[in-house]
Amino acid sequence: MSAVPVLTIDGPSGSGKGTLARRVAQQLGWQLLDSGALYRLLALAGARQGLAPLDESGHAALAGRMNIRFSSDSAGEENIFLENEEVSREIRTETAGEGASRVAAMPSVRSALTERQRQFAQWPGLVADGRDMGTVIFPAARLKIFLTASAEERARRRYKQLKDKGFDVSLAALSQELAERDRRDANRAVSPLKPADDAELLDSTGMSIEQVEQAVLTLAKTRQLFR
Ligand code: DC
Q1: Are 154 and 134 within 8 A, CB to CB?
Q2: What is d(CA 114, CA 25) in angstroms, rounded to the nearest whole number?
Q3: Ligand 1, from 131, 145, 157: best to mutate by most atoms within 8 Å of Cβ?
């Protein structure tokens, strides 16, 4: 049997990867891997167990045994569970993102999560979003997208997203946090944020989500990821 088709979407924070990945997966009827959520869950699980933020071996061990589950409700909202408790909202804060970015810089944490991520590749196909989906986790993916947008636009989008969810955030603080997180994600020694050599670069500045989705679906069709 041929390999499960995989479409990867990597890019910096706030580029719109998550929304895009969810929409494309829904359109194609494929599985979804929100890999950032795994790092967010791990940071939360570590904090709850009282692990020191820099305890690499503790986090790596936890990465292998934490009990997580993803499901989506009838409205298409993603529900995420840690040890059977719903934490969808808790892991979306910037504090959780910051914690995720820190544990994500630990090499043994990344290798502990590699196989868990690959298990998401199930028929009829997988859309995977993150930072290293095309470079490390699914190097043989049939289509790799590297999604960017200007720093201002990314901060504005993230601001709106958090506001819509009822979080009290400031645009200035958010811009600074995103810049710091991107710097850490792009400069770490293992699996830094960068486009795969064979990635399609897509700058979504000034584009609507519908336009970006259409561009990706057109590429997927051209590459015959689906009929
Ligand atoms: O996509 P996100 O904002 O939910 O990701 C949270 C953090 O996790 C991000 O700052 C970097 C890290 N991450 C990673 O290193 N590799 C991935 N594949 C996904 C996320």
Answers
A1: no
A2: 21
A3: 131
- Residue nearest (by alpha carbon) to ligand 1 atom 10: 101
Q: Give the residue whose CA is nearest to atom 9 of ligand 1.
A: 101
Q: Tell me, what's the pLDDT at 14?
A: 86
Tokens of 121: 């590749």
The model's confidence at residue 165, banded by pLDDT at 50, 70 and 90, is confident
| Ligand 1 pocket check for 46: Cβ under 6 Å | no
Domains along the chain?
A: 6-221 (3.40.50.300)
pLDDT digits (tens, 9 = 90+) for 115-160: 999 999 999 999 999 999 999 999 999 999 999 999 899 999 889 9
With a 6 Å cutoff on the Cβ, whether 185 touches ligand 1 is: yes
